[in-house]
Specification:
The chain is α+β, with helices and mostly antiparallel strands. The protein is built from five helices and 14 strands.
Amino acid sequence: MSLVGGVIQDVLPGQGGTCESAPLVSECFPAFLLGQCMDTHIKLRAISNVQVAPGGEGEEPLDSWAVQLDVTLRYQATDHERVAIRASSEGLFVESLDPLPLDALVQVVCALPDGAMCALASVDRVVLPEEAAFVGGLPGLALRFLLMDSQLRGRWEGFLANVQDDHTAAPKEEDETDRSVRKVLRLSRRSSAQRRRRGRLHVRVGQEQENYYTLNVSLGGMFIATARPLPIGSKVAMFVEHPVSSREFSLEAEVRWTKQEGPEEGWGMGVQLVEGAGEGNQEFLRFINEG
């Protein structure tokens, strides 16, 4: 069986009507139609605190909130019990002495007040113990959520709304330690501009014995990098292997466009899931997050 290395990318909500700022790009346009739009001009922003949850791509970072949330990190068939100390709409900062590789895919089980919530996330940044000690912070991992269905996103946003209410009701103590720093910590390990917000999936395409890479996986489709794309209109059977449970999920897709110009590493084909935006795709998102 051939394993296909893939790259998964989530999409941030925004404002306006452009590709970069649509209300939710993955709901408006399948990623295979966006091409490389979401992969260009990604800017790294200065972090104001080493203990910061993943934020957005704009000039201003997303709000993040101090929390005390029990989480389980499932990685390479091992469960790691941890505590999340910061939360944002895009992910968590989890206290941990054990670093994980950047862009590694981790299943996060959060103990929310209404029950356990499972979500797949990528390691967006690593803060080592010596780095944290330099500014008086805590070591850990910034984890960025990947594909979420509307129900999962609603649960997380509801949790954040309650956290914000609690912060409003309990003002900051005057003697509370300020652990922020005023400039970028060069020592902090984080994904580069080209690799940020991605993770690797294994995918098998039909009976082919070649390795492929996938880009911009969304609810509607994905881009498969290959030097020999199939003809437009071809139907393909795809099997996505979950990075934690190793279970497979079968998908049917149709080749909608191909690219065979420029550097060969950028060649490939955009495929659209045959199920469209129906229940089959919702099942795929549940599979991604729950395994």
